[in-house]
């Protein structure tokens, strides 16, 4: 007697989300390379611009852990795109200030980022685009808003350095 594994009863959404996220990240990285910035650096700058936020607040908005945020800010400071300044109300915290060069980069990048998003949405029939965006927005704002606690460690996929 052979035992077959049970067939899935629901589409493998995890695999599709992971694959779609990876492909979106590679598309974005390739597109932003035209202005010599990584998606992570662009994301930090775009979240920090004109907002008077601490490094920790920007890290949360950009969905970066503390160590990754420090590395990103080190790179942005070396490139002259952002600065860390002491927070007026908490001397342990640093406010991220986007420089004029960083502002120029965000302006240039906005069109690139919007173009990548537009290109992906245009792969769908026009009448499905708003429905897709609405459904995805509800998912990431609801049931998929925050990771759940788990005893098993779940790591994000690493992208190879070039």
User: SSE order, as H and E?
Assistant: HHHHEEHH
Structural class determined from secondary elements? mainly alpha
- Radius of gyration (CA) equals 19 Å
The chain-level mean pLDDT equals 91
Largest sheet: 2 strands, antiparallel
Molecular shape: globular
**Low-pLDDT sequence parts:** none
Tally the helices: what do you get? 6
For this structure, the quaternary state is single chain
Binned strand content: 5-15%
Spatially, the strands of the biggest sheet line up as 1-2
Count of extended strands = 2
Distance between the termini: 50 Å
Amount of helix: 40-55%
Summary keywords:
6% strand; 162 residues; mainly alpha; 6 helices
What's this, in brief?
The protein has 162 residues and is mainly alpha-helical.
Q: Topology, pairings included?
A:
Elements: H1 13-32, H2 39-48, H3 55-62, H4 66-78, E1 82-86, E2 94-98, H5 100-121, H6 126-141
Antiparallel strand pairs: 1-2
Task: Describe the protein's architecture and organization.
There is one protein chain. By secondary structure, this protein is mainly α. The chain has six helices and two strands. Strands 1-2 form a two-stranded antiparallel sheet. Helix 1 crosses helix 5, helix 2 (39-48) packs across helix 3 (55-62) and helix 3 crosses helix 4. The longest helix has 22 residues, at 100-121. It is globular.
């Amino acid at each position: 007697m052979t035992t077959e594994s049970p067939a899935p009863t629901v589409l493998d959404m995890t695999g599709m989300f992971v694959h779609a996220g990876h492909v979106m990240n590679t598309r974005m990285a390739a597109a932003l390379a035209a202005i010599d910035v990584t998606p992570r650096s662009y994301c930090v700058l775009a979240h920090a611009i004109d907002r008077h936020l601490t490094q920790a607040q920007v890290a949360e908005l950009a969905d970066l852990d503390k160590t990754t945020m420090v590395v990103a800010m080190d790179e942005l400071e070396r490139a002259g795109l952002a600065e860390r300044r002491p927070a007026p109300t908490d001397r342990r915290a640093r406010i991220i200030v986007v420089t004029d060069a960083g502002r120029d980069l965000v302006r240039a990048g906005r069109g690139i980022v919007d173009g990548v998003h537009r290109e992906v949405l245009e792969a769908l029939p026009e009448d499905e685009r708003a429905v897709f965006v609405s459904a995805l927005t509800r998912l990431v704002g609801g049931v998929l808003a925050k990771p759940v606690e788990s005893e098993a460690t779940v790591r994000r996929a690493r992208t190879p350095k070039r």
